[in-house]
Amino acid sequence: MIAILPTLAEPQSFSLSEKLLFAALAMASVYSFWNLFGRILNKILQSKKDSSFRLFPITKRIWDFFWEVLCQAKVVRERPLPGLAHAFVFWAFCAFALVTLNHCAVAFGIGFLNPAGEFARLYFYVAAAFAFACAAGILGLFVRRFLVRPKWLGEQLSYQSGVIALLIFVLMATYLAAFFVTDAGPDARILWWVHTLTLLTFLPLIPHTKHLHLVLSPATVFLSRGGFAQIPPLAGDEDFGLVAGADLTQLVSLQAYYCVECGRCTEHCPAANTGKLLNPKEIILGVRAYLNNLGPASDQPLLGKYNSQEAVFQCTTCGACEFQCPVGIEHVPILVGLRRGAVNTGAWEDEHGGKLFLALERGSNALGLSPAERDKFIEKQALPIFDGTQEYCLWLGCMGGYDPKGREIVTAFARVMKFLGTSYGVLRKEKCTGDPVRRLGNDLLFQQLAEANLETLAQNKVKKIVTICPHCVRTIQEDWKEYGAPPQVEHHSEFMARYVDKLPKQPSEEKVVFHDPCYLGRYRNVYDEPRKVAALAGDLVEAPRNKERSFCCGAGGGLAFLGEEDGERVSHKRAAELVATGAQTIAAACPFCNTMFRDALAATGESAPQLLDIAQLTARGLPE
Amino acid sequence: MKIIVAIKQVPERDAQVRINAAGKWIEEVDLQYALNESDAYALEEALQLKEKHGGEVTVVSAGPERVGQTIREALAKGADRAIYVASNDLGSRDALGVARLLAAAIQPENPDLILTGLQSEDLGLGQTGVILAEVLGLPHASLILHVEKTETGLTVKRELEEGWFQTIELPTPAVLTIQSGGNKLRYATLMGIKRAKIKEVRQVTASDLGVDVPPVVLMEGVTMPHKQKSTQMLGGSPKEAAAALVEKLKFEVRVL
Ligand code: SF4
Ligand code: SF4
After folding, report:
1. Residues 436-465 of A with CB under 8 A from B
2. Which CATH superfamily is domain B2-209 in?
3. A346 touching B (Cβ < 8 Å)
4. Helix, strand, or coil here: A360?
């Protein structure tokens, strides 16, 4: 049946001059492609090796490659319509690999797909379907970029993108048109040449534009660091983080070159959304500009002309950027890397930051208070001391041990544990886990804190830790690994979720909105557990941005300790969003979110909803 | 400018201090140590002077082996080299004895300026720096917040009572004891610590310095401060009780 449908027209014989012309143009095109692409590749390859990079276990990489590259899952999931349009362009390109090869071979009379044959005819039709979808897709993307213009794509219209879209459209159109002409006529020849010239123009443009990602991003999805927002260990005595070009590793350079400038990172960035200088997309492009102009061996500082120190220290390490990036760029290690470079060499001077560091150099907690205060709290609440016989070590953290609101959360959670009959104890001596200094890039202090704590835990033979602070959980479980084997640790939401059936359900009409803390959600993938717990206290409603897309409270990355921020406050923006849900209660699951929102709500005035941690909400339902 | 900073290692501010079994000193096992706070300010002042005028900053510290850690910390913050006076019997010396020890280590260096903290956070005698000046025969000033180098010597800002300050001029060489809070302290960095490893620490002993003396202090015992809380009930009618309370606040507690 398919044999009777028209097939692709191909010009039959090419004259010698035509052949020579094609060969010359093809060589020029490939040369010009390679000229720039080779240089870029060299910059990436000449960058420092990633000493902590391990290719294995490889199954996850293969899966990610299949799912995110071949299936385009992430692109589609995060932005369904443009994502689908993009997916069609991508799949068409895959389908076209064979078609294009054959197209070129035809010029020399060695075409291997015979348009009259069964297989080729079928293949051409499949490719035609993709070509059609692709042409429609590219038209859609064109309309979006030039007519709808979402602001994240940047103020400036990218004419390059327009040209590329046009070229892709012409490629598809000339391919499709060839079904409507015959081999013999001049039309087939004209179509062939238009298609060819378009192709040969397209190729050298790739490395010049963000379309470099056509070549690079499949590699990068495959070569990701392998963990979300993972901060790599420093490699050796002369590594202080990202100080200069010579510190850029191959992964960082590769990522800098394959950013497609889509702006998703910036769209979700709390700093960029509140008028700060920081713009994660520009950070990545700043590294690219540095590489282009100075190269990977330069000893010029990375912070200065191409990226600003001020911007880098506005990051809350919320991870929204990294989570959203469709090509798997890892912003957090880069941002923290740049901070490490500034802090480990003493180049960063900040009044509040300096105070925080000194407080932790000389004392035990980030709040700079005397540990006697913590002792008093433990005594007053009669919290049992951990002696090795109890199941859990209840880790207080700086907020739980010293902050009045944090203490209320600990007290409430202790009541819940008592009600459940779980045995637990607190340590007499605890130091800050080092979360704020780790994210601010102070490796010296972080190491001291991690080692001191690991020693205390080992001395006390702690096997399991539970804590109210997601930052403590993350730091203990992931970041301490560099210095020893931490005990098992979980967040109190995970603990309570296991026992929801045993905890009293409170008969109430109260509408409760749960705010996902970055370090519990994106960092730990825990979304349902705290919701299960919060649902004990009332009816859950959702904020417009929730779960993976939750918007930061502004405290992370050590920023809680850096004083007033410039511009609108992140916490105010998020608090307003939570208030707008109409909920009577905001349920938090992190003592930092809690302080941030407490201040933000106080500023909104009278009718603010109440703010409680999920442990407090749960404790409310317990018998006196 | 050639500057010497005399520093002392003291128990960390947050340390939980206990009395040792003999009851004659604090239990040193498990205790964390740090650089004495006003010495940290002295070091900061020295580093800033060096950054402005060039020269060299040398730290001097006496004590048992653990002092090495504090010396490295000072080197990490930017001191150029160190002299470590190894001695396990500091407790048996009084302030004069310690000052003699330090003076003997400092003298051959011929510094332009000697800085040290106003007083230590553990013993809090506040004498060592001043006696050091006497032993060295140099002019001195105490309670200094800020040091400025002039053509002929130094201009320094002293803290007086109740928010008053005094500015005085001094020739060099001189000894100054530094008050906390005059500067912003710098934080220790990884690079500083790594670089500190290759800096020179010269070790000397009391006998090398020729100040080996018999003990002059014998510790009788140490005790924890007594915590005392007492509640007095004021009886009588509310009016009488209130009057009694006013009486007490006025004449006993003296807050009214
Ligand atoms: S981690 Fe969060 S604050 Fe930092 S750049 Fe990314 S989105 Fe912005
Ligand atoms: S870093 Fe990722 S999300 Fe941000 S602009 Fe580049 S490709 Fe898009």
Report:
1. 442-445
2. HUPs (3.40.50.620)
3. yes
4. helix
